[in-house]
UniProtKB/TrEMBL annotation:
This is Putative Na+/H+ antiporter, CPA1 family. The chain crosses the membrane at residues 6-21, 33-52, 58-80, 92-112, 161-181, 187-208, 229-261, 281-299, 306-327, 333-356, 368-386. PANTHER family: CNH1P, NA(+)/H(+) ANTIPORTER 1. It is a multi-pass membrane protein. It comes from the Bacteria. InterPro entries: Cation/H_exchanger_TM, Na+/solute_symporter_sf. Keywords: Antiport, Cell membrane, Ion transport, Membrane, Transmembrane, Transmembrane helix, Transport. GO terms for biological process: proton transmembrane transport. GO terms for molecular function: antiporter activity. It comes from Moritella yayanosii. Pfam families: Na_H_Exchanger (PF00999). Residues 12-391 form the Cation/H+ exchanger transmembrane domain. One of its GO terms (cellular component) is plasma membrane.
Length: 403
């Protein structure tokens, strides 16, 4: 792989998309669509301009940074005070809808792919459970859509990746330990270490970082331009510190962001600014790498059952659990369907699956898992991207003034 060629191509794509991004948005064409398609065009499946291995060091580093920033900023931008006042809908989505989605996804996977180990099918369901509100950005930013709907979709997207990730770690540890073939229970201690030390390190880094940042701002010690950078540096520091101390760096980044974002108003503002600019760049690069490296690798494994599962994952397996979880609320059926449809599969699924590739890529039998996840994300990028604005407009006509 020529890393310099890949970097040059990314720079050119950023320039190309940046100059016409507003024009493309008028046609409901999003950044993830553009970067994914151009990645595919540059890949051996397209014009063969360049190639990249999925588990290459270059890809792993970019993916790790992107995931750290996504988890940190998602957690930091969650307003816990607001969540305490209107927690019913997000709580139902996360603690009823999410488990039902995992169970339904696993059951259908076992039915469609009976030759696969059940642990692989659980992993498949988990990888496709996190949602990505950014793929339906018009939904969560359109003021015509009622605030409670936008907030619920945003909170679900911000928290479900953090909830699912420790479970993904557990299943990956279970698979790599060979537990299905031997009585090896070392994975339990490994997972416990990862979660507990990750939470502790993240909490400590977040606490000390917020204290120091607030003090520096209060005494005017810090230049305005650095206020965007310090929280992100704390996220990366928390990640590597946790990895050194036997914890999981991604969990540490999530908890550091959760603490900093809810104890420092200034930090929260600057994290949001960073997430909308530099953070967005890392996310778009991840979509480019997805199109460049992962899509061509799995296209030959796509079968009828893979297509069926991908379609079900985007519709029934996501929508039915959400609709059921929201029964008994004051939301009408149209609102429940609207929330259920806007559960795009995007950046979290891409980053999680690339981490799984890095950890268990040499273990046979994962071709089906990778193919299903790839196709589902690919469908979601376009299905949710193209429907976000039209569906928001249609929904808001009858629900604009609803509380």
């Amino acid at each position: 792989m020529d890393e310099h060629v890949v970097i040059l191509i990314i720079a050119l794509i950023v320039l190309f998309y940046g100059f016409i991004s507003k024009k493309l948005a008028q046609f409901d064409i999003s950044g993830p669509m553009v970067f994914t398609v151009l990645g595919l065009i540059c890949s051996p499946f397209g014009f063969g301009i360049t190639a990249v291995e999925v588990n290459a060091e270059f890809v792993t580093v970019l993916v790790e940074i992107a995931l750290v920033l996504v988890l940190f900023s998602d957690a930091a931008l969650l307003d816990l005070k607001l969540l305490r006042r209107s927690w019913q809908i997000p709580a139902r989505l996360l603690f009823i809808g999410l488990p039902l989605t995992i169970i339904a996804g696993t059951a259908v996977a076992v039915w469609l792919f009976p030759e696969q180990p059940i642990t692989y099918m659980i992993l498949l369901a988990l990888l496709l459970t996190p949602t990505d509100a950014a793929l339906g950005k018009a939904v969560v930013t359109d003021p015509k859509v009622p605030k409670i709907i936008r907030s619920s979709i945003n909170v679900e997207s911000g928290l479900n990746d953090g909830i699912v990730f420790p479970i993904v770690l557990t299943v990956v540890a279970l698979i790599t330990s060979g537990l299905t073939k031997a009585n090896d229970y070392s994975w339990i201690w490994y997972v416990a270490e990862q979660i507990v030390f990750g939470m502790l390190v993240g909490g400590i880094v977040g606490y000390l970082g917020a204290k120091l940042l607030n003090k520096a701002i209060e005494h005017n010690w810090i230049e305005e331009s650095y206020q965007n950078l310090i929280p992100i540096a704390l996220a990366i520091f928390g990640f590597y510190l946790a990895e050194t101390l036997l914890g999981n760096g991604f969990i540490a980044a999530f908890f550091a962001g959760l603490y900093i974002g809810n104890t420092s108003k200034q930090a929260r503002i600057h994290i949001e600014e960073f997430a909308e600019s530099e953070g967005e760049l890392f996310i778009l690069i991840s979509f480019f790498l997805f199109g460049l490296a992962f899509v061509p690798l799995t296209l030959h494994d796509i079968s009828v059952n893979v297509v069926i599962y991908a379609l079900l994952s985007l519709t029934v397996l996501r929508m039915l659990p959400v609709i059921v979880s929201l029964m008994g609320t004051n939301l009408d059926f149209a609102s429940r369907v609207f929330i259920a449809w806007f559960g795009p599969r995007g950046i979290a699924s891409i980053l999680y699956v690339l981490i799984v590739v890095h950890n268990v890529g040499d273990i046979g039998g994962f071709d089906i898992v990778y193919a299903v996840v790839t196709l589902t994300i690919l469908m979601s990028i376009f299905a949710h991207g193209f429907t976000a604005q039209p569906f928001s407009n249609l929904y808001s006509k009858s629900h604009r003034d609803r509380p």
